[in-house]
């Protein structure tokens, strides 16, 4: 009897971050959708830079605050200016745009926390802080702290960028801020990230790369306070920023009637914190796969896993895993991040495809060979822990053989 009074939706999306809202906008063209978000919908503690072409393609140009022709990467002794048409977005404005579009398509958005789920009547009963709902499909877009992932112990491997910072209101000063990442050269190997919104408002945060952890951003508060006292002594923090960008892999990317999308589904590329950009790139493919599964009423784990797999190319994943392993272990080497920035310099104008996560097989082969060139094998062996080493070396060897074969083939053609 109770079930009858429960509100029913075709799809319930838990989490109104970039993953949940992009999925809601796309899927609401065909389905009745409820989004539940534990915070005030339309707010986030992340800050996003993206690219002019993507902002235009995915219709979020209205939220662009600043444009840059390069991203500056600095390591203790190296510099790399990654050329690209970059944009910094007003993070809350991006969410506001998506909320407006979702609501215009009839999506219901409620400020309620996901608590639990139970299988019932061929679907899922979703229990929130304020009530119970029934749905055929639950999309878990609750980010890297997803309770469903934790409860089922679904994480196979994970690394993290742990971040703490703020949107700072400051005086206009002589030397403008750029979109950049630079080291504090401290014992904890902390980096500073700068995403300027305007001459007088800048997102500034400190971050660290760590292995096998979900991290705790609050641990970086002191380092951030010290950094900001030096950088902007008269600045005022007008918003908190922070979180953990987790990358790695899951044991399962879907359960019966439940699928993980965005950070909960480990969509952030290993080695770079570009999870927002990956969601932009993948949300339409994700929504198409879900719409097809919904239409066929095939919402079992196997079918939903195929939808999740369609977002992952195996060669790209292998390459990202290598770069992820290197980027985290560079910090333990004598020159800290120098190796990484040397590699970016060796890639020249083509380095941008790494941050964009846009790879061709030729690019992957070139990137591997150049990585070999700047980081001698001896150093690789001493840097990367034993449990990761066989995979990294096997992949490096495989990509090198592929590259050599392709050179020989091209010569034979001539
Ligand atoms: C400081 C910072 C800077 C970054 N910079 C960039 C960048 O420049 N470019 C880039 O591409 N990426 C960047 N990222 C990464 C990017 O922000 C994430 O990859 C992206 O936000 C992931 O989106 P998501 O929707 O999957 O998860 P989230 O953004 O984490 O959203 C999850 C949502 O679920 C909600 N939620 C959680 N639990 C519950 C619950 N129990 N019930 C209901 N709701 C719940 C949360 O409140 C949240 O709103 C940055 C991240 C940070 C923290």
Summarize the structure.
The protein has 414 residues and is an alpha/beta fold. It has 14 helices and 16 strands.
Tally of DSSP β-strands? 16
Helix content: 25-40%
Q: Total domains, how many?
A: 3
Terminal Cα span: 76 Å
What does this structure look like?
By secondary structure, the chain is an alpha/beta fold. The protein has three domains: 2-69 and 91-156 and 250-309, FAD/NAD(P)-binding domain; 159-247, Alpha-Beta Plaits; 314-413, no CATH class. Helix content is 38%, strand content 29%. The chain is built from 14 helices and 16 strands. It has helices at residues 2-5, 18-27, 52-57, 91-104, 147-151, 221-231, 275-296, 301-309, 314-330, 338-347, 352-356, 361-374, 377-383, 389-413; strands at residues 7-14, 33-37, 48-51, 64-74, 79-89, 108-111, 114-120, 123-128, 132-140, 155-169, 180-183, 191-196, 201-211, 236-250, 254-255, 258-260. Strands 1, 2, 6, 7, 8, 9, 15 and 16 form an eight-stranded mixed β-sheet that branches. A hairpin with a 7-residue loop joins strand 11 and strand 12 (191-196). Helix 2 runs parallel beside helix 4 (91-104), helix 2 (18-27) packs parallel to helix 7 and helix 7 packs antiparallel against helix 8 (301-309). It is globular and about 65 Å long. It binds flavin-adenine dinucleotide (FAD). The site of flavin-adenine dinucleotide has 38 residues, from helix 2, strand 2, strand 3, strand 10 and strand 14.
């Amino acid at each position: 009897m109770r079930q009858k009074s429960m509100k029913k939706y075709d799809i319930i999306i838990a989490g109104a971050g970039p993953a949940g809202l992009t999925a809601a906008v796309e899927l609401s063209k065909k389905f009745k959708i409820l989004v539940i978000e534990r915070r005030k919908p339309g707010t986030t503690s992340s800050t996003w830079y993206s690219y002019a072409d993507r902002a235009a393609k995915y219709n979020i140009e209205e939220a662009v605050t600043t444009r840059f022709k390069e991203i500056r990467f600095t390591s203790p002794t190296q510099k790399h200016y990654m050329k690209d048409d970059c944009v910094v977005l007003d993070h809350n404005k991006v969410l506001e745009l998506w909320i407006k579009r979702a609501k215009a398509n009839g999506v219901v958005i409620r400020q309620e926390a996901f608590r639990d789920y139970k299988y019932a009547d061929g679907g899922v009963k979703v229990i929130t802080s304020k009530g119970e709902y029934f749905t055929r499909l639950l999309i878990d877009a609750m980010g890297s702290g997803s309770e469903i992932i934790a409860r089922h112990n679904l994480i196979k491997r994970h690394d993290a960028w742990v971040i703490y910072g703020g949107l700072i209101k400051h005086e206009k000063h002589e030397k403008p801020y750029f979109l950049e990442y630079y080291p504090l050269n401290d014992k904890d190997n902390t980096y500073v990230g700068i995403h300027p919104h305007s001459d007088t408002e800048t997102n500034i945060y400190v971050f660290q790369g760590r292995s096998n952890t979900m991290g705790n951003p609050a641990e970086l508060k002191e380092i951030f306070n010290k950094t900001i006292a030096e950088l902007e002594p008269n600045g005022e923090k007008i918003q908190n920023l922070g979180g953990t960008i987790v990358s790695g892999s899951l044991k399962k990317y879907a359960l019966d009637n439940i699928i993980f999308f965005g950070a909960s589904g480990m969509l952030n590329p290993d080695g770079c914190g570009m999870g927002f950009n990956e969601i932009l790139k993948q949300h339409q493919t994700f929504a198409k796969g879900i719409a097809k599964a919904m239409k066929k009423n095939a919402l079992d784990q196997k079918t939903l896993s195929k939808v999740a797999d369609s977002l992952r190319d195996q060669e790209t994943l292998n390459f990202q895993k290598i770069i992820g392993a290197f980027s985290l272990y560079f910090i333990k080497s004598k020159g800290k991040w120098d190796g990484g920035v040397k590699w970016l310099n060796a890639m020249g104008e083509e380095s941008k495809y790494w941050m964009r996560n846009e790879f061709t097989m030729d690019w992957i082969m070139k990137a591997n060979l150049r990585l070999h060139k700047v980081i001698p094998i001896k150093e690789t062996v001493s840097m990367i822990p034993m449990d990761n080493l066989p995979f990294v070396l096997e992949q490096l060897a495989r990509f090198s053989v592929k590259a050599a074969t392709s050179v020989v083939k091209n010569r034979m053609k001539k």
